[in-house]
Structure formats: C-alpha cells, structure tokens
C-alpha cells in the first residue's frame, strides 16, 4: 500500500500524457448531447462517481443520478434510457452487477462508457466508449492509486466534454509529489493522535464530499475503525447530536466554495467538543485542533490531492492498530456483487 501511494505522481503524469485518447471519447459524448447522466459504481468507485456527479452538474450543468444496480439485477427493471449517458466505473471491470447495468443500459438506448483500470475487461467490452485510468496493477486490497487515477480520468473526460484543455490538472503530478513529501510529519502526528480513537466521523462539502466518503471507507477496511461519512450539510440535519468530546472528526477542507461552506459545520462540531483534523488546501483557515495542509489547486481537482494524506493516515493507523493494510480480513481485491 505504501509503494502504491508513492506511485501516484508518476501515474498522474502518464494519464495526463494520454489526454488526447480521453478527449476522443469526450467528443463522442459532446456530439451525443445527453439529456441526463447516470453513473454506476460500487465501493471506492462509487465515491469517484460522487465526484463525477459534482463535476457534471457544475461544469456541464446536466442532471445526474447514481444508479442502483439491484434495480436491474434483483428486480429485473429495464428503464428507458434514450438520450442518457451511462458511465460505469470499476477498477477491475469485472463486477457482474455493473456489467448487467451497462448491457441493459445499452439495450435501452443509452450511450455507454466505461472507466476502468483493466482494458479488455468484460465491462470495457460491453461499453461503447472506454476510458482507461492507466494505474497499473494494484496489489494492495485497499484502492489508492486506482482511486485517484479514476478521479483524474473522470475530470479529464468531463472537462473535455465542455471543451476544456485539462489546464487545471496540468500541475497535479508536481502538486501530488509535494503533498506526499510535505505532509508526512503532519500525517504521522495525526496517526499518534487518533491511534486509539473508537469514534470517528468524516465530513466535507461539495467536491470534497467524495473524499470524506472515501476516507471513511479506507479507515474501515484497513484499520477496522467504523468511521461514518457525512456531507457537512447532512451532518447538521441530525448526526451532529451524536458528536462529543470522544469523537474525532476528519474535515476535508478545500480553499474553494465547498471549504467555505464547511466552516459553519466546523463551528457546530467545535461547540460539541470534538477533536477536528482539517485536511486540504483550506485547512489553515479551518477551526481545528490539527491540520494537514495540501497544496492549493482549482477546487474541481482538489479531491485528487486531498485524498493523498488520507491514504497515508489509513496506512499508519492500520499498522499502529495491528492490521495488515495490504490484506484486510474478509476482503478480496475484486468483489463480485449482483
């Protein structure tokens, strides 16, 4: 897991070099002019889909939905998807339920695209368009490099659909290297702070909501810490009542609009006495007990960077709590669901 975390700056550079290939798929989508976008994914890829949802709704101003695969696989429904763009996201490209959703969507009129780390996989073959995230083989069960490469691939695809050149992503390899290098001491301090905690909540707003969800999953699957993720807005609608001085909170704070919107949430959390660790380019402005800064970037690509210290934190906590982050109990690299 440590080695794969460290590979990410080079993976970003390689993916950026393949932007023209992604742009060709984007041209097909732009010509199709979808009226609606449907995203299908599971696990970490579901969090990448949440990131894509924000990108599409903000940058393309199209309505977006997250598919429920069981509608197809368990209930046998075949909704009319004429004029819909269906994007299926899977690192392995082998999940039977996502394959079924993609095949059914294509039969029912959707333009289908796969985003996967496995060219030639069943999902890749089933979709009309394929975007390959080019992360290489990932050996650790916990997804790190495949997750961030998927985020970047989705950004490059959606940015190209709107006619962009990927300029906001151009500096990500160097920024990622800086985040991994400069954040090492702050991450290690966070490991020491939270190594014994049993109650942890993650939160973010806007694009960073995806990182909050991914953070909770990484902590649960590697260190067996039952973390819960909430959008900052949802947190204020009830769950904040369960937060107290025994709760640790990881707050994903960009320097953009999402980070600004989170400040009210952090004030409410502070009043409950919780320990807050702010992570991101906006961490310095957040009300927090501990901060892990991340280099500044355009907010729309910030999740690619802000998840890097989260991965390092999950790795460190797993080791300190006696777990094996490369092979967590009860998990396999490829999960086949229906």
Automatic annotation (TrEMBL):
Keyword Ribonucleoprotein attributed: no
SIS domain location: 25-167, 190-328
A GO molecular-function annotation: carbohydrate derivative binding
SUPFAM superfamilies registered for this protein in UniProt: SIS domain
Statement: the UniProt record of this protein carries the keyword NADP: no
InterPro entries, per database record: GlmS/AgaS_SIS, GlmS/FrlB_SIS, SIS_dom, SIS_dom_sf
PROSITE patterns: SIS
Entry keywords, A to Z: Repeat
Superkingdom assignment: Bacteria
GO terms of biological process kind: carbohydrate derivative metabolic process
Name assigned to this protein: SIS domain-containing protein
Phylogenetic lineage: Bacteria, Bacillati, Actinomycetota, Actinomycetes, Pseudonocardiales
């Amino acid at each position: 897991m440590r080695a794969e975390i460290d590979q990410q700056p080079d993976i970003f550079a390689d993916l950026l070099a393949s932007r023209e290939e992604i742009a060709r798929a984007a041209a097909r989508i732009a010509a199709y002019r979808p009226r609606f976008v449907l995203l299908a994914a599971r696990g970490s890829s579901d969090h990448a889909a949440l990131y894509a949802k924000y990108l599409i709704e903000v940058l393309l101003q199209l309505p977006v939905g997250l598919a429920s695969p069981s509608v197809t696989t368990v209930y046998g429904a075949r909704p009319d998807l004429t004029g819909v763009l269906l994007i299926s996201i899977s690192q392995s490209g082998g999940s039977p339920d996502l394959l079924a959703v993609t095949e059914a969507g294509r039969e029912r009129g959707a333009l289908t695209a796969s985003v996967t780390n496995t060219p030639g996989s069943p999902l890749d073959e089933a979709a009309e368009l394929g975007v390959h995230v080019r992360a290489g083989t990932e050996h650790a069960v916990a997804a790190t490099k495949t997750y961030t490469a998927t985020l970047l691939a989705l950004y490059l695809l959606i940015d190209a659909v709107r006619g962009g050149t990927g300029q906001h992503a151009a500096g990500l390899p160097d920024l990622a290297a800086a985040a991994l290098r400069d954040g090492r001491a702050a991450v290690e301090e966070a490991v020491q702070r939270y190594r014994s905690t049993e109650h942890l909540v993650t939160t973010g707003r806007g694009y960073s909501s995806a990182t909050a969800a991914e953070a909770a999953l990484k902590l649960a699957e590697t260190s067996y810490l039952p973390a819960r993720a909430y959008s900052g807005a949802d947190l204020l609608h009830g769950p904040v009542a369960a937060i107290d001085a025994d709760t640790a909170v990881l707050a994903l704070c960009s320097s953009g609009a999402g980070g600004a919107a989170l400040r009210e949430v952090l004030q409410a959390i502070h009043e409950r006495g919780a320990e807050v660790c702010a992570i991101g380019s906006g961490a310095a402005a957040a009300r927090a007990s501990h901060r892990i800064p991340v280099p500044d970037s355009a907010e729309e690509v910030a999740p690619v960077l802000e998840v890097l210290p989260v991965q390092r934190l999950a790795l460190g906590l797993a080791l300190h709590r006696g777990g094996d982050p490369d092979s967590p109990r009860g998990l396999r690299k490829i999960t086949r669901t229906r």
